[in-house]
Amino acid sequence: MALAGGDTYYTGDGTSYTLGQVSAGNCNFMYDPGVGDNYAALNSEQWDSTLNCGRCAEVSCADSRCSDTTSTQTVYIVDRCPECSKGDLDLSPTVFKALTGSDPSRYSIKWKFVDCPVSGNIQYCTKSGSSSSWLAVQPANFANGVASVKIADQDVTMVDSCYYFLLNGGSNVDISAVDIQLTSVSGETITDTLSLTADVCTEGTSNFGRSTTQQSSTSQTSQSSTSESTQTPSTSAPTEAPTATTATPTAPVVSTGSSATQSEVSTYFNTLNSGSSSNGTSYQAGKVTAADESGSGVAILQASEAGVEKTSSTQPDDASQTNSDDTEQVTTKSEDSSSGTSPVFIALAVLAVVGGIALAAFAYRVKKKNADDKNIDRNEAMNRSFGTFSSPVRINETIAKI
């Protein structure tokens, strides 16, 4: 059957419908050339037993209600509209809106077949269940419509209700190296030697409309492992990972008794670099002066960058933040207001514990001595009761002598 070329315009009604995906159309395409929202269903009279599947149409609005009848949209024929009359197209909602500016309705349109804006080579998709004795091949991603197909130099038929060219003559073919010849509606012929696999699309070596040569000699192609076109999403370059920092160990911070005391102590240490404590002991910023036996206060300062490595902090302590330099207060203890634990207090506590232990030991020894004394007294009493000098015999002898 001869297919219409690209110079003939058709007029009819344009309507709108929604198609979930390309493979859901009556053409049953395994490969999506990038149809997106630019799809259409062709009327039954021009369906031509699926032979117009995969072709493209350039559509414009011919209705008086359209404000612009010159703008066009290119659509892929992927489906059939059984209730449509000749010249009618059932368009996607996106295309219908772009042409008419209206919500889905029925508008007069004008259209013609054109080359498809595809990229890459023709795809040869093999139907599931295909074998060397029953081979169904579906061309896809072609620029111009396919008018006829030969497989292994043999004529083919069409699979009912879907777009496949079937070789079912009873003769076995080597599907690992099979010749497939395509002829476009404009008469261009392409021949590819392919290694086919059931339910897989294999890329050919060329496409229609690439040159003026009518015959394209090709070699065997490598098999494509995908059955549908997938577009690789763009990935943003990962941001550079922040440089890891190691915190500088610092002495534990002893909290002060109140916010007023904190402010006073902070102000004092911000302005003080060196000096003497109340007991006359000299100190210097960055040095630690231990408490003496009199229980004097302990002053601990962290020097600026020259002495101790500073580390960044996202939430600095109000009591330790300075305004005049980089000196950071680590530990403070006010002589007037001390809430920490002094060495004298610790020593007294230790002495109290030791004294308590000693007292307990002394009490134990006294109690044990008393118990021993009682035992001795009891034993002596028993000895006196049953001793020789107190026995009844000796008493009788004594009386007799008297």
TrEMBL record:
Gene3D superfamilies per UniProt: Expansin, cellulose-binding-like domain (2.60.40.760), RlpA-like domain (2.40.40.10)
Domain of life: Eukaryota
Matches recorded under CDD domains: DPBB_EXP_N-like
InterPro entries, A to Z: Expansin/allergen_DPBB_dom, Expansin_CBD_sf, Expansin_CellWall, Expansin_EXLX1-like, RlpA-like_DPBB, RlpA-like_sf
Comp. bias (Low complexity): 211-256
Region (Disordered): 206-260, 305-340
Residues that span the membrane, as ranges: 344-364
Cross-referenced SUPFAM superfamilies: Barwin-like endoglucanases (SSF50685)
Comp. bias (Polar residues): 310-340
Keyword Transmembrane helix: yes
UniProt keywords, alphabetically: Membrane, Signal, Transmembrane, Transmembrane helix
Expansin-like EG45 domain: residues covered: 19-121
NCBIfam families (UniProt xref): expansin_EXLX1 (NF041144)
Protein's recorded name: Expansin-like EG45 domain-containing protein
Species classification: Eukaryota, Sar, Stramenopiles, Oomycota, Peronosporomycetes
